[in-house]
Amino acid sequence: MNEHIWRPHVTVAAVIERDGRFLLVEEETSEGLRLNQPAGHLDEGESLWRGCQRETLEETAYHFEPQALIGVYQWRNPESGVTYLRFAFSGELGPYEADRPLDVGIVRTVWLAREEIAARRAQHRSPLVWRCIEDYLAGRRYPLELIHHYSGAP
């Protein structure tokens, strides 16, 4: 019997573009300050799109409504050995809650143009940050109907 059961970390991310700029967060990590999309781990029992809404609100104070799946990404962090399975969404940015505190570890939100993001690739949290933006700019959009969330007994 295999005692080690491999479990990837399931994460969700929002790729949000407005007027040619993308909403990113600067966050404290064990490697220092890094850039990332609003993103985080899926909570138990949570649907992928609800997780994306929650993470975006917690990390940016913006409401977000996912409208399309950009892609599904698998990446193994060579330093930690952890494998991440990321679901990236595009959608509509909603109201901003100015008085809402940002999640622990989030230093600030920033709106950056594609060129600025490319110039700061050494600061990206992972290679998924850039890949998601590239796929978004390439027009990759898949209907949310591809994702089915089941809860409870059949």
CATH architecture assignment name = Alpha-Beta Complex
For the sheet with most strands, the description reads: 4 strands, mixed
Q: Spell the H/E element sequence.
A: EEEEEHEEEHH
**Total count of domains:** 1
In CATH's first tier, which class applies?
Alpha Beta
CATH topology: Nucleoside Triphosphate Pyrophosphohydrolase
Please list the strands of the largest sheet in the order they lie side by side. Answer: 5-1-7-6
Going by CATH, what is the homologous superfamily? Nucleoside Triphosphate Pyrophosphohydrolase
Folded structure, characterized:
The protein has 154 residues and is an alpha+beta fold. It has a single domain (9-97, 106-143), classed as Nucleoside Triphosphate Pyrophosphohydrolase (Alpha-Beta Complex). It is 19% helix and 40% strand. The chain has 3 helices and 8 strands. It has helices at 48-60, 114-119, 127-137; strands spanning 9-14, 17-18, 21-29, 32-36, 39-41, 62-76, 83-96, 106-113. The chain has a 4-stranded mixed β-sheet with strand order 5-1-7-6, with helices on both faces. Strands 2, 3, 4 and 8 form a 4-stranded antiparallel β-sheet that branches. The protein is globular. It starts with 8 loop residues before the first strand and ends in a 17-residue tail after the last helix. The mean pLDDT is 95.
Set out the fold topology.
Elements: E1 9-14, E2 17-18, E3 21-29, E4 32-36, E5 39-41, H1 48-60, E6 62-76, E7 83-96, E8 106-113, H2 114-119, H3 127-137
Parallel strand pairs: 1-7
Antiparallel strand pairs: 1-5, 2-3, 3-4, 3-8, 6-7
